[in-house]
Amino acid sequence: DKVWVENPALHLTALYYMQEARRQPGPEMNSKLMELQEEIEMHFRKGTFILAIQKEGNGIPLVKMKNGDVYQAAFTDILEFQKFNREGRLRPLVVTADKIPQIMTEEAKGVILNPMGVRMPLQIKKASGQPKQDA
After folding, report:
1. What is the DSSP string of 49-62?
2. Which end of the chain, N or C, is less surrounded by CB atoms within 10 Å?
3. pLDDT 10s digit of each residue in the chain, 135 long?
4. Strand ranges (E), the chain
């Protein structure tokens, strides 16, 4: 009962987006960033992800941003999950993008994609599950 989870197109597009966003300080979004954001949303909706659950109990690890916003960790592949789970206290939970809004914690604004790598926060609307990139 093993499931292969891999999202190379999403991971690569997210890397390009974050690289471009870091070059463009400020809230305005150029056409390249908007194009990449649309591509990320498309890949995200089609994707299957790994979420982390504590082995002991049902706790879900959350990532707190500098501004105080809280996000639930989501991973594009098992290697990214393993970077986050160095101590082996977590177990992977494979979830399709459309199911993420149903299992998100109340305090989470969304998911943070590959928090040990890309570290891309995506806001998730719990009703529709559509990701929105934080500015």
Report:
1. EEEEEESSSS---E
2. N
3. 677 788 999 999 999 998 888 887 666 778 888 999 999 999 999 999 999 999 987 789 999 999 999 999 999 999 999 999 999 999 999 999 999 999 899 999 999 999 999 999 999 987 544 455 554
4. 48-54, 62-64, 70-75, 90-96, 110-113, 120-124, 131-133
